[in-house]
């Protein structure tokens, strides 16, 4: 059966590849992006998010089978928290009524292995509290200290997003309504986002030190797109609240084998 699937960030990289694969297999895709999409909207702006929710719901005649949220930026600017956290969580929440009218509703977001990197606890807390003004103020302050300090907005946005997915996934609104909600955390993906970084051997060495990828090295966008499509297909009946590190082994390289000993604390 044809499914109606909303893909954000559909004009480039992982989102564009996901939209193309879905269209190729006969699904109906509603793309959202800044430009060159079915719905052009700046997801860093609250009013534009609300408009995107209305227009997407109208275009889908009120029933959406899946939402795949790929839109994101990694620049050391305050907008990074607005797009990567609020632009995802508010859009998903706004589309819940249309999702809940589907026979097999699903949602997946693109987080990042960068969620494991040093972050700003204050910024993560403000995002998780839903306080966009405070989050933007903290991000402004960080970015005012230059690009190195400003970069921390990106891992903070992804840490908060991954935690939001885990927190919300088991609530009545999601699991209780029969909607699997999950995140994918990529390693280094070959898209326009990483093009400049990967064109200079010095920055490639920095990236590879931070994101070691023993399996397959830098990954094509399709490696993420196929997983997003499975997560949001009817075949996924019980996978919920997971942050799946689809990263060539970067997470294991960094965190090691043992993610269970938290259970052994007395
Ligand atoms: P990309 O730059 O190729 O695509 C991102 C898309 O998001 C673009 O089409 C852009 O126009 C859209 N977008 C940006 N700001 C927006 C806004 N305010 N409103 C609406 N749309 C907006 O990048 P890529 O690599 O495909 O990134 C997709 C997701 O994957 C992002 O969330 C990124 O953080 C995440 N990611 C990417 C990695 C990589 O190595 N490329 C690694 C880990 C995560």
Distinct ligands, ions and cofactors found in the model? 1,4-dihydronicotinamide adenine dinucleotide
For the largest beta-sheet, the strand count, sense and barrel status come to: 7 strands, parallel
Anisotropy-based shape: globular
CATH topology: Rossmann fold
Please give the count of helices.
Answer: 10
**Uncertain stretches:** none
Beta strand count = 7
CATH homologous superfamily identity: NAD(P)-binding Rossmann-like Domain
Task: State the separation between the terminal residues, measured CA to CA.
Answer: 50 Å
Secondary-structure element order, N to C: EHEEHEHEHHHHEHHEH
The chain-level mean pLDDT equals 97
Helical content class = 40-55%
Rg of Cα set:
18 Å
**Any guess at the CATH architecture?**
3-Layer(aba) Sandwich
Helix-strand makeup class: alpha/beta
Spatial order of the strands in the main sheet?
A: 3-2-1-4-5-6-7
Domain module tally: 1
**CATH class membership:** Alpha Beta
Relative strand content: 5-15%
Describe the structure.
With 266 residues, the protein is of the alpha/beta class. The chain has one domain: Rossmann fold, CATH 3.40.50. It is 44% helix and 12% strand. A 7-stranded parallel β-sheet has the order 3-2-1-4-5-6-7, with helices on both faces. Helix 1 links the parallel strand 1 and strand 2. The mean pLDDT is 97. The protein binds 1,4-dihydronicotinamide adenine dinucleotide (NAI). 1,4-dihydronicotinamide adenine dinucleotide binds next to helix 1.
Q: Could you give a short description of this structure?
A:
This protein has 266 residues and is an alpha/beta fold. It is built from 10 helices and 7 strands. Helices cover 44% and strands 12% of the residues.
């Amino acid at each position: 059966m044809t499914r109606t699937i909303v893909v954000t960030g559909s004009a480039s990289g992982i989102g564009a590849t996901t939209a193309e694969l879905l269209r190729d297999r006969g699904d109906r895709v509603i793309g959202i992006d800044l430009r060159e999409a079915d719905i052009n909207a700046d997801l860093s702006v609250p009013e534009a998010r609300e408009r995107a929710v209305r227009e997407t719901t109208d275009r889908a005649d009120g029933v959406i089978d899946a939402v795949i949220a790929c839109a994101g930026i990694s620049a050391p600017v305050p907008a990074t928290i607005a797009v990567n956290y609020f632009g995802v969580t508010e859009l998903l929440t706004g589309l819940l009524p249309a999702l809940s009218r589907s026979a097999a509703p699903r949602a997946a977001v693109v987080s990042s292995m960068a969620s494991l990197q040093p972050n700003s606890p204050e910024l993560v807390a403000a995002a998780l509290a839903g306080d966009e003004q405070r989050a933007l103020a903290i991000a402004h302050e960080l970015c005012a200290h230059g690009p190195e300090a400003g970069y921390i907005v990106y891992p903070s946005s992804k840490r908060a997003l991954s935690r939001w997915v885990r927190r919300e996934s088991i609530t009545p609104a999601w699991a209780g309504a029969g909607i699997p909600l999950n995140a994918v955390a990529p390693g280094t993906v070959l898209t326009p986002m990483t093009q400049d970084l990967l064109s200079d051997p010095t920055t490639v060495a920095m990236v590879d030190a931070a994101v070691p990828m023993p399996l397959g090295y830098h990954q094509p966008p399709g490696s993420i797109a196929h997983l997003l499509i499975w997560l949001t297909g009817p075949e996924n009946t019980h996978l919920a609240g997971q942050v799946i590190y689809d990263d060539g082994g970067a997470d294991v390289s960094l965190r090691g084998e043992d993610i269970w000993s938290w259970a052994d604390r007395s």
